[in-house]
Amino acid sequence: MHFALINNNRTEAQPLLKGLCTCCSKPVIAKCGTRKIWHWAHKSKTACDNWWEPETEWHRTWKNNYPADWHEISLLDERTGKKHVADIRTVHGLVIEFQHSHIDLQERTSREQFYKKMVWMVNGTRLKRDYPRFLKGKKNCFENPIFYNTENPKIFRVDLIDWCFPSAWLESSVPVIFDFRGDGSKDDSEGMRNTLYCLFPQVGRYARVAEISRKAFINATTNGEWTFRVQEFINDFRKEDEIEQNIQQQTISCTSNKVIYTWRGIPLFGGYKEYRKRLSASYKSIRKGKR
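User: That's the sequence. What structure does it adopt?
Assistant: Structure tokens below.
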């Protein structure tokens, strides 16, 4: 953890300091070595929040984009009586969770149901295959196209979404941001890692992915615009899908009402007139005893 309480003041870890956990109020000690970022740790091995994960430099770098008093905010789950610590909770009530390690479906769902108004930021460099797989999909290098352009050049309709994003995040009920730059040590000769990629909750047949600059994301989550803009996008997606669905239904209806005449399994371009002509010729042949 980044902060502990010393004389009721939130304090960063410094050598030899002792304090109290901001969540459970139990004793914590400062860990200030050379291998890991300086942090606070409980004296006992029992963590007070079962959603807690070790903080990396990637976590800390992202959290430092926001005011210190938004960091590590304890929230009580009235249903279970347990407290959970949000990585970032803005003054607008938006929770941002930075996720580096693997998360199972049950925990991801539980966090989304608890925080409700939230967004995930996922470190896309944890597994080696994740970025190459995404890049292949983004460039439409698979046998089938994956990314389709829309009227907004920064938003894509994505088919076969499981071909280019980790399955653990595909059914999330809140936006998931993928950060493929990580700590910045990865090769980025094409300059694509610096962009964030937002996977929206899926509406209709297609998933939607938006390209977002880091600055735009930080600004929107800081000034309170993020939640409104996400809902606006999702509403637009619903309208687009409703229009497309209506067009498809009308097309199917028109097609089903139109009789297609065939002869020996081959469609006839002349329609009913050509069908009657061939039927008459066939009837005459039979009358003459011909096959």
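The helical segments are 57-63, 105-115, 130-138, 214-223, 225-257, 271-287.
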